Amino acid sequence: MTRRIADCGMSTNDCCAATNRREACTSKAMNGEPGSLLFSIDLHNRATIRGKEMIRMYRLLIVDDEPSIVEGLAQMISSHELPLKEIRFAYSAGEAQEYMERALFDIVLADIRMPRISGLEWIESVRKAGWKCKVIFLTGHSDFEYTKKAIQLGVNDYLLKPVDDEEIIGSLQRAIHELDQSLDEMMSISKARQKLQVSNDNLKNQILGDLLLQPRNIPPGGSIKSTLGLLEVSLDEQGDVFLALMRIDYWGERFQAADAALIRFAIHNMTEEMLEHGFHLETISLENRLIGMLVQSDSPSPRDTDKIAFIMESVQNTVFRLLGVSLSVVFRSVPINWGELGPYYRLMNEQLLHSTGTGIWMDMGGREHAAPSATRSEEPAGSVLIEQLKSYVIHHLSEDLSLDILARRFHVNPTYLSRLFKQTTDEVLSHYITKEKMNAARQLLLQDGMKVSEAARRVGYHNPNYFAKVFRNLFGMSPQEFKAKMFL
User: Fold this and answer.
1) Residue at a domain's end among 378, 412, 432
2) Is the pTM of this model over 0.85?
3) Which residues does the record list as 4-aspartylphosphate (modified residue) (predicted)?
4) Per the structure, how many domains does the chain have?
């Protein structure tokens, strides 16, 4: 008999067992055991080799506010032979967001209607953050506006409850097939073309590498122009270039150091595809783990910096999401002339050498860092950066304090910033911001004549009803009840 997922996909005994597991997980988390609050099924040990073919493995995140449905789906999906190395599930959009900030998921299976933040609202924020995971909505509501919004967000499938297990598995298989196709397109290499170009590429890499490593060995004047033209380098020696360095921190589960050329090829292809017409790119292999990139615009404009920085960060996130390879990036956000490449390369390489951790993003803009000839101060340690972040939050409570905004403000990768804050403070960044906003609101409400709506606005909440809900969740009473109690 075909089983169907409706309001509950499990028997009474299964529901009780699921509830007990969740309570046990919650208890462990309250006692300080990391990663226990949100139950997960780890399929890491499932065989990844069939014959001689490597099977790509993906991560799945299930989101629904009904524990029995979530855990029933997880158990059902794990019983099928799908290339999933991990299945995690969350009981709210907020918990799911915490997971996405710690590790990128390839597929999301989510309900639409959930308390506080709906599945549609959460996926919209996920899309705005640049995460291009495959999304499948599983819902009991066939509202046209829901369907329209889901299409706008590029959702892969929209399944209406009750739905057969086979339909869910079929939807997951289609999403996995699309992921495989995307990865194949990015990793495809023409062996014939590679053989024809290998000599030219090696020579081009040597010449461009010398520009960075040994600039004194490069003849001045027209020799550079003629050399670049002979090697079919797309860059103009008269124009300034943007310089970026990428360091491979972690090869992931599918690659190793011997695959360095393949990874560099994939990174070059991704960057080239993301760059708009009017930009030219050259990639330089500097050593086994270090990659240099030179980008030049046909028609330079002040907006080039933001465009290229966004693309470099997107490449960093995409490489990690699709290939599992972690990159640290240092980017010079001010274009430089060819004669300055050597000094700036040495300064940027030194930044990477002194940086710790993985997946780091550093923006070496002209205003943020001293010129190569000046004495450079050391990169602030993680604890110093977090103290600066806390100070910024306290002084900008009325502004947008989303993870992306804060990461750009402090010139680091969003995932790295979220992880560093948790490691340094043992607190989730979003929880810290909410707590500071509510504490500030409480002080404002103590002022005579202060309206709840005005206090909400001053701490960045433009919806008084939502503000009141968050306030009650934190302090156990509404803002009005708090004022009444304080002014008795």
Assistant:
1) 378
2) no
3) 111
4) 3
